[in-house]
Amino acid sequence: MYEFDSESLTPEQRAMVKLWEAHLEAEFETKDAEASCGTMTDTPYVNHVPTLTGGIGRSHLNHFYEKYFIPNMPSDLETEMISRTVGLDRIVDEFVIRCTHSVEMYWLLPGVPATGRRLEFVVVVIVSFEEGKMSEEHIHWDQASVLAQAGLIDPKNLPVSGAEAARKMLDRNAVPSNALIKRTVSDELL
């Protein structure tokens, strides 16, 4: 399990981490859209890149968080940190999300009713800061992996992985490398 050491950070960097963690707490623990948006500038921008969900501006994001993001989190959702990088005006977090697709998740699978399937995928979030507040969040994940795990695409003949991608990120020896190549190539050195 990854443990982040904030001792080597500047006071400004520690403040960014504290604000980002308050934002995450408001989203996932206290489930408070107003508190979550309170960590942001007046004109923040959030983009869940694979699905183009999120918004621009505090009132738009507050509505998105309150109606489509926070209440549509499965009760068993959990995250596991892989890494954190803190720069001068941004934080990059890499983590695994695990949950059962037990509710319609507008931000992850918009328009798809709950499938009841287990999902496990890697997420990378780039958070930018301006004048002591969060100004942007860019959230990336492998949508093909999510679609395969939700049973919405058949990965059999596609170069797509499922939960094993997250497992390999947490333990590089958990899943062999090059399995997708080996489906079509005979190479003993792979």
UniProtKB/TrEMBL annotation:
Entries under InterPro entries matching the protein: Cyclase_SnoaL-like, NTF2-like_dom_sf
Pfam families: SnoaL
Listed Gene3D superfamilies: 3.10.450.50
GO biological process: polyketide metabolic process
Name of the protein: SnoaL-like polyketide cyclase
